[in-house]
Amino acid sequence: MGNEKRLLSAGFMAILAAGVGFAVRGAIFGNWAGEFGFTNTELGAIGGAGFTGFCFGIVIGGMLADKFGYGKLVMLAFALHVISAIVTFAATGATHDATEVAKAAAKASGYNFLFWGMFLFAYANGTLEAVANPLVATLFPKNRTHYLNILHASWPAGLVLGGMVGWIFGGSWSWKVQLGTYLIPTLLYGVMFFGQKMPKSEASEKGLSLSEMFKDVGILGGLVACFLLALFFSGVFANILGGFMKPDPTDPDKISRLGNILGYGVGGALLIGVGVMTKFSKGSVLLFVLFCTHALVGAVELGTDGWIQNITGNILTPKQGNMLLVWTSLIMFSLRFCAHFIENKLGLSPVGILVVSAILACIGLNLSSNVNSFGMALAALAVYALGKTFFWPTMLAVASDRFPKTGAIAISFMGGIGMMSAGLIGGPGLGYAKDRFSAEELGRVNQAAYEQIKSKDAKDFLVFGKVNGFDGTKMDEVKGRLAKAREGDVTTEVAMSKLNATDRQIIEAGIVGDRKTLRADSAIPAIMALIYLGILAYFKSIGGYKALSIAGDAAPEPAKTG
């Protein structure tokens, strides 16, 4: 085509815009908690919308990409990126001296503006990735792992830039100005894509129908996606019902239960639709396993990334938390240019790379849970960064290599499942874990202090019970006193010695909750490592890992068994 590198660069800039917005959002969680009074669970739900919207964008975009062309999807994404900024910036908290009723109203409206603003932002990101992933896989069919890792090096690059915004300007710029910086790379990718000729995927070139592209996904693959969509719609319907139904004191879970019934009804209907579209094809068991595993990837990589600077900032200092996000992102950015060397010079197959990555991520999260100095954090998070670097793009490469007949659909579904899992399980789950572990610790050491600072609203997560997390506004006041005590000090421990006993216990309980959250999080890559070992054994049993073509022939590269 002649414009391969231009299109690769445009895709790089598009995902970079998503990374900038994601990193800034993580840095301003504290601003939102203080301005609106959100708990960690509520912040996790807002952050989760920044993932779930991605799922809709990438899945719908993946289904339309081969039929409508990549150019139209890029135009849609650009418009949504701008609209999302308008919606998000409409959120405004109540003044400090406002009545409790006014504060509650501002919190409710602020939650909705931020939630849907993040959803639109993520939908735009997903639409762009529905373009960029198959585009790069099509442009570089003989070296997908390498070039998809280069494409996704833009994500940590965006995290670096967004993290630096929070690091340098967090104390002087408003959260709206900080978040608005993602519009700069948005404008750039729009210019870079403008007027470019786009290729078609191999499946589209061969004239495969949408039904044929869906065959390998089938009922099994649809089951993973539809389950996550059912979770999403359950929450949406519960919020809608809560807007016009009065709570029933005799049945406090009635609204939530009705939301679940409607949500799973939608999920079931969508699964039936997938069955009809594929003529009730069972789908590939391997692709089903890859989809399930990528749900874990989304939960541990993106879910953790959404909280890591908040968690490390609590354990150390907020500025150090921002610096550590930049540190891990720089490691990821550098290593994603090395996938070709690892695969070809070291002889590891893409699945072998994933096995090693999962083991390192598990070790890194456990090490991170025990840090008590900036130097220790640098080392521990470096191990975690080594582990998480290759997860996302290498999983996409495996799906693209092994299932070429799916065109843009399989890798779009995979990306959507990862993001939906991050939004519904990873982000909210870590927020819930922080709330539960911190509440349990403070309740153990000082029940009166917990009663004073806990939120009025109890929140649950999946099958886990309800918990009253720390009220964001009250916690912001405690952190304000800690920040004042920290002036001139390097460590949180020294600053805490200047606080009264109650404040100190609240801060310490939060840190205990953060450490326990990271240890609980490390179980996910441990499970992933076992799954990848099983996949590796499967490929060894059939002669090694090979990239396939639609004709069924192996690509010219030799099989890799390690």
Commentary on this structure:
By secondary structure, the chain is mostly helical. It has one domain (4-217, 284-541): Up-down Bundle (Growth Hormone, Chain: A). It is 76% helix and 1% strand. The protein is built from 25 helices and 2 strands. It has helices at 4-27, 29-36, 40-68, 70-89, 100-139, 144-151, 154-169, 175-179, 183-193, 202-205, 210-214, 218-244, 254-277, 285-315, 318-335, 339-344, 350-368, 374-388, 391-402, 409-445, 447-453, 472-486, 492-496, 501-521, 523-541, and strands spanning 459-461, 464-467. A two-stranded antiparallel ribbon has the order 1-2. α7 (154-169) packs antiparallel against α15. The longest helix is centred in the first third of the chain and has 40 residues, at 100-139. The radius of gyration is 23 Å and the shape is globular.
Key words describing this protein structure:
mainly alpha, single chain, two-stranded antiparallel sheet, Growth Hormone, Chain: A, 562 residues
Task: Note the topology.
Blueprint: H1 4-27, H2 29-36, H3 40-68, H4 70-89, H5 100-139, H6 144-151, H7 154-169, H8 175-179, H9 183-193, H10 202-205, H11 210-214, H12 218-244, H13 254-277, H14 285-315, H15 318-335, H16 339-344, H17 350-368, H18 374-388, H19 391-402, H20 409-445, H21 447-453, E1 459-461, E2 464-467, H22 472-486, H23 492-496, H24 501-521, H25 523-541
Antiparallel strand pairs: 1-2
Helix pairs in contact: 1-5, 1-7, 1-9, 1-14, 2-22, 3-4, 3-5, 3-20, 4-5, 4-9, 5-6, 5-20, 6-19, 7-15, 12-13, 12-14, 12-20, 14-15, 14-19, 14-20, 14-24, 14-25, 15-18, 17-18, 17-19, 17-24, 17-25, 19-20, 20-21, 20-24
